[in-house]
Amino acid sequence: MSGHQARKRFGQHFLVDEAVVESIVRAIAPRPGDAMVEIGPGLSALTRPLLQALPYLTVVEIDRDLGERLRREYPEERLRVVQADALQVDFAALGEGLRIVGNLPYNISSPLLFHLSLFADVVRDQHFMLQKEVVDRMVALPGSGDYGRLSVMLQSRYAMFKLFDVPPEAFDPPPRVQSSVVRMKPLGSSRPQPSSQAAFESVVAKAFAQRRKMLRRALGDWAKGLDWDALGIPDTARAEELSVAQFIALADQLYADGVLRG
């Protein structure tokens, strides 16, 4: 195709299906005034049509060869190339009202989503291509098999919508998994928020570490003294049955009782 060999260590699978590209760009609906940031531009499958709608675009690319290729192909006044690992980027330094898009490397998708959540206050929306299994977990509802730590943590910060699936043959080289496109819109300051984010994260992580156990057993000593009736959580509840709001209430109680610290 391009002469560039996909690098496994970067999780590179280049989108080559023009119909899929058009569907993604249509979902993003870029406008000239948008502060758009693309993660992992690769061979410009999304970069090119985005720049047809935008006067300026920032891209984050870890591969030095691809970064140089992008600099040769596009003038600086149209494209800013941030040569870096997206997991290390301070996205707040890139502006406010950011619209972040990308075909994310599947091997770092969860850590990258958690990293990006730190900057949700400066983000307008996010559109990502991810492994279908990951997207299904992101949007899963309580009580479903896909509902877990990723679901709770991201749903506490974003409203998320699965848009459509993408088959392996849309990529070169084809991944061994199905892919999906997801839209993520940060929730505002009026959203339910825990008294301590650290306590909330600890509770969710511990609860799902042994998801087959009843929650009061999975939490171990943390569960002693909790008023489960006041929390509205049945004695026999498992982690996958709790809503985001119930996890926040549980963490707030443990934090107020001094069981957990911020």
From TrEMBL:
Gene encoding the protein: rsmA
Protein EC: 2.1.1.182
Domain of life of the source: Bacteria
Record's function text: Specifically dimethylates two adjacent adenosines (A1518 and A1519) in the loop of a conserved hairpin near the 3'-end of 16S rRNA in the 30S particle. May play a critical role in biogenesis of 30S subunits.
Start and end residues of each Ribosomal RNA adenine methylase transferase N-terminal domain: 20-188
InterPro entries: KsgA/Erm, rRNA_Ade_diMease-like_C, rRNA_Ade_Mease_Trfase_CS, rRNA_Ade_methylase_Trfase_N, rRNA_adenine_dimethylase, SAM-dependent_MTases_sf
Binding site for S-adenosyl-L-methionine: 13, 15, 40, 61, 85, 103
Record localization: Cytoplasm
Protein keywords: Cytoplasm, Methyltransferase, RNA-binding, rRNA processing, S-adenosyl-L-methionine, Transferase
SUPFAM superfamilies the UniProt entry points to: S-adenosyl-L-methionine-dependent methyltransferases
Name of the molecule in the record: Ribosomal RNA small subunit methyltransferase A
Source organism of this protein record: Candidimonas nitroreducens
SMART domains referenced in this protein's UniProt entry, alphabetically: rADc
GO CC list: cytosol
Chief location: cytoplasm
A GO term, aspect molecular function: 16S rRNA (adenine(1518)-N(6)/adenine(1519)-N(6))-dimethyltransferase activity
Family stated for the protein in its record: Belongs to the class I-like SAM-binding methyltransferase superfamily. rRNA adenine N(6)-methyltransferase family. RsmA subfamily.
The keyword Cytoplasm appears for this protein: yes
